[in-house]
Structures are given as structure tokens and as C-alpha cells.
Design a protein that fits this description.
Keywords: DNA-binding, Transcription, Transcription regulation. The protein has about 260 residues and is an all-alpha fold. It has 13 helices and no strands. Helix 6 packs antiparallel against helix 7. It is globular.
Length: about 260
Amino acid sequence: MVNSVHVVKALSAYTQVGAGLRTEVVMVASETPMRERILAAARTELTLVGPAALSMRAVAREVGVTVGALYRYFKNRDELLTELIVEAYESLGEAVDAGIAQVWEANGEARGTSGWVAAGLAARRWGTARPHEFLLLYGTPVIGYDAPQRTIGSASRVIVALVGIVVAAREAGFALPAGTYAVDTSDAALAEDFARIRAWLVEMGFAAAAPRVAVEDIFLTIRSWTELLGTISFEIAGHYRNSVESGRPYLEQVLRAQARALGLP
């Protein structure tokens, strides 16, 4: 997880905090549905105080209504936070899907390295444009907040997109490279994890491919997904400062290395 002190310092490079943001939210057109106005105000509060300090009272003040009026739309802070999280996951997932679709439209092919790179760079574009929301999803957990089941489907969109690229490559006959690290599943708990993930593949629409997906495919895809999100988080939070300052080309190299390890065409 990212260090909160570093996050606050790093995000100053992305957001101008102060009266300007507050004024912008207050000036939302009066005809905008109240629920949307509340969510817009809550997103602005995220940039000002972070998710842990998000309060219904502050959001109500931004919208210009009483706290009681706010509770007509969201029963508590956690419900509001959940809505922000689901919306952010969906928006990120849409951005990744669009990145893959763009490759498909350009050359009719998204199962290989080009689609993989496009997906990862799309995730970075979204994260660097909306750093507070990215760190809401992948940064330090909010103490006391327990994400409900309804967030799971939205949270799975990026990994489902990556799995789809790997599965399509396997179905097209592209296998893992010779000499790929053989995953040791002698640990019963780890073997159970992989079995659970294989069952999840069926639930996500990969029923035909799931039995043929190697443990190494699962391992490498999850490792790559984690590395993708971690690399973006490190850039946003400023952990690469004075080292890797060229975020996009660096991430592209990471993605290409991942694609080669996965044997993508």
C-alpha cells in the first residue's frame, strides 16, 4: 500500500486545492440531478481531504443542502463511498476496454501484445488523470470501511480484460514460452487459491477455456495485473521521483516484458 504522507505530497502535482475547487462544485447547474451533484461534491472532497476524512457534513456544505437532505440519497458515509468506488471501477474498466477496442478497430487484432499494452496504458491514462480516484481504489484502505459485494463485479473489470487477452492468445495456439517458471502448487492453500481462480474464470465467461488454462497462466496474469496497478500507484504517489520520471515509456516496457513472459503474439 502507498504511504499516505507521500500520497498527499505527490498529489499536489496533479490538483490545485482550495477555493477554486469548492466554487466549481457549488456552481454545478441547478438542473443537475441531486444525486449527481452529491457525487460530484464527494469527488471534490476526495481531492481535498482523501477518502478517510470524507464526511457527509462537508459534502452537504459543498452541495448547499442540509445533512438531513443528503441522507435521502445516501444513508451514510459508507454508502456514499461505495457509490464512488463502484463508479470509479466502472470508469476505469470502460477506459481499459476502450483502449483494447481501439487496437481492434485499427488492425482487427487485440489478443496479443498490442492489446495488452493498450490496456495497460489506458489504465495509466485514467489513473494519472484521476489520481485521487485511482488511490481510492488501490491506495491505503479506509479504516472501518468494508466494501460490500456489489463492488466485486466492477472491481474485476480490469483483470477480466487482461484474462481475455491471454485466453484469446491460447485459443489461437500461442503457448507459454519454453523455460517458463513452473509454479509449485505443493502448498495446499496455494493450490486451493488457484482452484478458486479457475472456478472464477468460469463465472466470468471463460468456461470453455478454463480447464485448459495452465497454473502458470494464472500466476503470470495475476502477477502482471498486480505489477500494472503497482507501477501506476508508484507513479501517482511519487515513489519514482528522482528515479523513473518517464512514466508512460517505462510502463510500456513493463507491459511488453509481461506480454513476452506470457507468450503473447
